[in-house]
Design a protein that fits this description.
alpha+beta; four-stranded mixed β-sheet; two-stranded antiparallel sheet; 6 strands; elongated
């Protein structure tokens, strides 16, 4: 099961699965339409960011349900929109991905 948000101006997909090391890996991909005007607007950026966060939360909960105790988050898309993520794993050690 994965999360997908199709909007006329962007698409967000979020997939979670255990990787070869046994860590729950969440992959986020955000793509804006190629022909968008230069000034995308704060509302569109906020909507795309919210869609990514919803997908991450959904896949994170799914991983926890399947027994995950740590997570690796990989994001592919506009760094202005996605930024950087700081996650805390189950034992409280903070890591930045």
């Amino acid at each position: 099961m994965s999360y997908r948000r199709d909007h006329p101006d962007f698409t967000v997909t979020v997939d979670g699965a255990f990787n070869d090391a046994g860590v729950w890996q969440i992959d986020v991909v955000l793509r804006f339409r190629d022909d968008l005007p230069a000034g995308r607007g704060d509302a569109l950026v906020a909507e795309a960011r919210l869609a990514a966060i919803r997908g991450i939360a959904q896949e994170g909960l799914r991983g926890r349900t399947l027994g995950s105790t740590s997570v690796l988050l990989q994001m592919d898309g506009d760094p202005e929109v996605l930024g950087h993520a700081s996650l805390v794993n189950a034992i409280g050690a903070e890591s930045v991905h």
